[in-house]
Amino acid sequence: MAGNLTISHVSHVRALYKGILRLHRGLPLKLQAIGDQYVKDEFRRHKNVPNQEAEIFMTEWTKYYLTLARQVSKRKKTQTIGINLSPELADCFNDDQATQLMELFKEATKQHPKTS
Predict the structure, then answer these.
(1) Where are the domains of the chain?
(2) Rounded Cα gap, residues 27 and 57, in angstroms
(3) Whole-Å CA distances, 83 to 44, 68, 79
(4) Per-residue pLDDT tens listing for the chain (116 residues)
(5) Considering the entire predicted model, what is its pTM?
């Protein structure tokens, strides 16, 4: 029975991962590239974590998927993608996670020269 649970979990993880990458296709190209790389790195980094951490990981990425799906489906040129991070949630990050989040923020908000 444990084998079936593991297969089911792996299938769920794979489906969520692929679904997120599909949703990223609805983002501007620069955000898509940043998001795809971030998702790939995070899923790889959490491949062999303890069950409790895996549950939290899957819950948070499922929330991300649902939020992004709503935003992409309603997206207009002027609509912002994303949500603000609550101070309570930000306080839960360890130093490495906070640093990673800051680097992601800087990259996502960096002004890129227009190529024409």
Answers:
(1) 2-109
(2) 23
(3) 24, 9, 12
(4) 444 556 688 899 999 999 999 999 998 888 899 999 999 999 999 999 999 999 999 999 999 999 999 888 876 655 667 777 788 877 888 888 888 888 877 877 776 555 54
(5) 0.71
Selection from 17, 19, 15 nearest residue 40 by Cα: 17
CA distance 16 to 6: 15
What is the radius of gyration, based on Cα positions, of the chain?
16
pLDDT score at 1: 41
Buried (b) or exposed (e) across 68-83, using 16+ Cβ within 10 A? beebbeeeeeeeeeee
Q: DSSP of 45-109, one letter per residue?
A: HTTT--HHHHHHHHHHHHHHHHHHHHHHHT--TTPPPS-PPPHHHHTT--HHHHHHHHHHHHHHH
